[in-house]
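Question:
Now give any protein.
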Amino acid sequence: YNGEYLDLHCGGVDNAFPHHTNEIAQSESYLGHPWCSHWCHVAHLNTTDGKMSKSKGEFLTVSLLEQKGYDPLAYRFFCLQSHYRKSLVFTWENLDNAVLAYNKLLAKIANLKDEGGVDEAVRAEYRAKFSKEMDNDLNTAMGVTVLYDVLKAETSGATKLAIIADLDEVLSLDLIAKAAALREKNAAAAAQSAGAFTVIAEDGTPDEAVEALIRQRADAKKAKNFAEADRIRDELKAQGIEVTDVPNGAKWKRI
C-alpha cells in the first residue's frame, strides 16, 4: 500500500522490540532491499500514577476531549511543548494551563495588523531558526519558542503573520484561521456594544473580579469621585494590573 520504501516509521518506544525489529525482518526479507530510512519512537503519555494504557482503563481520545469541551488543538499545543523522547505527564490541570496559553497565543496573533509589507530577509531568518530546531531531533518545544520570538520581533505585522503561517505548516495549530475568527468575534462584540463601556483583557483571558473593579473605577470617574477612582487604580496596580483607558472602555493586562 505504501510502496517499497518508507522515509519515516513512528510508534511508541515499547514497539522498538520486538514489534519493529520483526517488521524490518519481514519486510526486508520479502522486498529484498532496505525498507525504512528512519524510525521515531515516542515516549509514553503518563498519568500521575504511571503509564496511560487501555488495559488500566486510562487512556485519552480526541472524542473524550471534545465531549469535555476541549479544542483538540489545545491538546496538540500541550504535546508540542515537550520533546517526543520524554515521557509526558497528563492531568486535566496541565491541559487547562495549555488551553490558557493557547488562547493567549491566539489573542496575540489576532492583535497583529497585516500591514507594513513582508520583509523576506526577516522571514528567511526565522524560518532558518525554526528549521534548525526541527533538524535537532524534532525539538518542537524550542520550535514553539521561536514562534513566541516572532511575536516579539522588531518587524512589521505583515512579516510576523507570514512567518507564523510558515511555522504553522509544521506545528498545525490553525493559528492564522483561529486568530482571524477571534478578531472578527472581537470586532462584532465591539460593534454590538458601541457606546457602552467595555472592558477588554489584552491577553484574551477575562477575569470577572478585575473587570468589576475597572467598572467601579469608571463609575467613580463618571461621578467625579476621583479619590475613589485613584484608590481603585492603586488597588489594581498592587495586583499587578495595568489599565489603559480607551474610547468607550478600558483595556487591561498583567505586568
